[in-house]
Amino acid sequence: MTKQAKNTVCLWYDGGAEETARFYAQTFPNSSIDAVHRAPGNYPAGKQGDVLTIEFTVMGIPCLGLNGGPNITHNEAFSFQIATDDQAETDRYWNAIIDNGGQESVCGWCKDKWGLSWQITPRVLIEAITDPNPNAAKRAFEAMMKMTKIDIATIEVARHG
């Protein structure tokens, strides 16, 4: 038995918790599968022996995937925000999610195939939209509002006018 973290993000899935955790562990650094727990008896969304919960880590954040059934689904009220250092890293994470059945959204947001939202956010974007020069911040913000995946070069051009 693993020692559970004091605070863990619990994510509800309709049977996809193990597949999800394996995808995250293969895609993101500092991510892992930590434990798989099978149901000791039948339950509304499964039967004895099915994966009930899976403990995993996503970029250092402890998570618990719960195969709870179809009654609860993910929405944009919760997302993982991944800070990236350059365009290659931004592209790598964005493409991994989109190319694995995910969906593009706006302003650096996307959803994985299990419905969980991700913000793939270059650090340059955060610096640009919080620039002490309000005109620079506004130009960068307006450029971001037109994007799906964030293009760092376009943000920098907008920021510097």
Structural account:
The chain is of the alpha/beta class and 161 residues long. It has two domains: 9-67, 2,3-Dihydroxybiphenyl 1,2-Dioxygenase, domain 1; 79-160, Roll (2,3-Dihydroxybiphenyl 1,2-Dioxygenase, domain 1). Helices cover 32% and strands 27% of the residues. Strands 1-4-3-2 form a four-stranded mixed sheet. Helix 3 runs parallel beside helix 5 (152-160) and helix 4 packs antiparallel against helix 5. It is elongated. The chain starts with 8 loop residues before the first strand and ends with a helix. The mean pLDDT is 96.
Summarize this structure briefly.
By secondary structure, this protein is of the alpha/beta class. Helix content is 32%, strand content 27%.
Supply the CATH superfamily name of the largest domain: 2,3-Dihydroxybiphenyl 1,2-Dioxygenase, domain 1
Number of strands: 8
Helix/strand-derived category reads alpha/beta
What is the helix fraction of residues, given as a range? 25-40%
Q: How many separate helices?
A: 5
Contiguous low-pLDDT stretches (5 residues minimum) are: none
Gyration radius, to the nearest Å? 18 Å
**Quaternary organisation of the protein chains:** single chain
Amount of beta strand: 25-35%
Note the overall shape. Answer: elongated
**Main sheet: strands, sense, barrel:** 4 strands, mixed
Examine the coordinates and then state which fold CATH places here, giving the name of the CATH topology of the largest domain.
2,3-Dihydroxybiphenyl 1,2-Dioxygenase, domain 1
Number of structural domains:
2
Distance between the termini: 56 Å
User: In order across it, which strands form the biggest sheet?
Assistant: 1-4-3-2
* Elements, N to C (H/E): EHEEEEHEEEHHH
At CATH's second level, what is the architecture of the largest domain?
Roll
Overall pLDDT score: 96
CATH class of the largest domain: Alpha Beta
